[in-house]
Amino acid sequence: MTWLSPSHLLRQRSPPFRAATSPRLRDLIALVLMHQDRRRQLLQIHTQFIAHQVFDRNPAPWRAFLKAYSHGPFPLEALHLFRHARQHLADDTFAFAFVLKACAGLGWPQAGAQLHALMVQKGFEFHAYVHTALVNVYVVSGCLVEAWKAFDEMPVKNIVSWNVMITGFAGWGEVEYARLLFDQMPCRNVVSWTGLIDGYTRACLHVEAVALFRHMMAGGISPSEITVLAVVPAISNFGGILMGEMLHGYCEKKGIVSDARVGNSLIDLYAKIGSVQNSLKVFDKMLDRRNLVSWTSIISAFAMHGLSVEALELFAEMRRAGIRPNRITFLSVINACSHGGLVERGLAFFKSMVYEYNIDPEIKHFGCIIDMLGRAGRLCEAEQIIEGLPMEVNVIVWRILLGCCSKYGEVEMGKRAIKMISDLERESGGDFAVLSNVLNELGRFIDAEQARKLLDERKIVKVPGIALVGDIQ
DNA sequence: CTAGGGTTAG
């Protein structure tokens, strides 16, 4: 069985495997298929056969394969390829950059560290591109201390090295470090700004994100598509319709509305800041650039604003256009039904999702269904669904039910929901804002004295929570 | 050769 090992195959330089009819090759493929080791392994071995037959010692084609694999959906193949073709690639800095890219794609810091050792051995440890790629491996894997160390010891840093650190740290929520790096770097480009803006948006520091965006524009740096994508959530949370229209206008001027992702995020932005008309305008203009996300975004925009019939019409149109809905499309569709009181249709869509489209329902889908039943006053059915959920129940579904209970004055069920919510919050060490919301809801059901009693109980419960925060710091 | 990415129940 040792001949199954690809490295063994590579060592056999001659004679080369002649054709696909070679019994050895046939056996090998049969074996691979028999072992059900799927496409991945077959692909890997197949590639090596071709590469071996055609290229043999020449490193360039190996490098091309490595590049293709490291950027594609199968980064593991890049690692395999590298390991088996090391004799061709060991001194190639390009190959190291690619294979490190693959490690980043896999989020494998250990593999990165091994390559680091190899880099030291080969004497190009401080090659700027390769070392940047190494820093990136650490940063995307969340090994921020390692990343910082590796970055710190780089004798020559380029702008990409800094940007790797900024986007990485911002992406892991370390906005302050990202800011520090941003302020320290000798010169910044649009990626540096975008990375930081994205960090602020993710950290819900929307005002800062928008301020930074304006600062960037004022500094004469032109936002890219990605910058727009990064700043949109901030504007939809904090900016008004005017700011949204300004951004939209800017995108048109710069010609980046033609990017489907930008168009889609504008649809969503307008929906969230209260202008479905503008959402529709953007959607209409997209014409042939519409994709599944565009359709889903516009359906969800209509659903958000209670335009259920229109949302369902769009869904029908989407299907006529031959686009297959996904789990998020169905979420929006069921949400539309929920907001419009179209209970039976919503249930039918849910069924169709599961049985016709073979999409496994998630907690969010059930959340919509529960909301739909609850809004229509079918509270018992809603509660039964929660109790029979095939997955872990979260606070949100109970909160949905609670909202419906308070709407219909269902005191007993409401109390049960509150109990579940406070239990779940306690488990996750919930915060005071959430707690006070629950108590607010509670006030609708029980008298002041009972509420106070519950509050006292909660205070007792909160003590360990406070102590825990102390421990962390 | 190394950096940024859209829609998701209340």
Automatic annotation (TrEMBL):
<feature type="repeat" description="PPR">
    <location>
        <begin position="189"/>
        <end position="223"/>
    </location>
</feature>
<dbReference type="GO" id="GO:0009451">
    <property type="term" value="P:RNA modification"/>
</dbReference>
<dbReference type="Pfam" id="PF20431">
    <property type="entry name" value="E_motif"/>
</dbReference>
<keyword id="KW-0809">Transit peptide</keyword>
<keyword id="KW-0677">Repeat</keyword>
<dbReference type="InterPro" id="IPR011990">
    <property type="entry name" value="TPR-like_helical_dom_sf"/>
</dbReference>
<dbReference type="GO" id="GO:0003723">
    <property type="term" value="F:RNA binding"/>
</dbReference>
<feature type="repeat" description="PPR">
    <location>
        <begin position="291"/>
        <end position="325"/>
    </location>
</feature>
<dbReference type="InterPro" id="IPR046848">
    <property type="entry name" value="E_motif"/>
</dbReference>
<dbReference type="Pfam" id="PF13041">
    <property type="entry name" value="PPR_2"/>
</dbReference>
<dbReference type="InterPro" id="IPR046960">
    <property type="entry name" value="PPR_At4g14850-like_plant"/>
</dbReference>
<feature type="repeat" description="PPR">
    <location>
        <begin position="158"/>
        <end position="188"/>
    </location>
</feature>
<dbReference type="Pfam" id="PF01535">
    <property type="entry name" value="PPR"/>
</dbReference>
<dbReference type="InterPro" id="IPR002885">
    <property type="entry name" value="PPR_rpt"/>
</dbReference>
<protein>
    <recommendedName>
        <fullName>Pentatricopeptide repeat-containing protein</fullName>
    </recommendedName>
</protein>
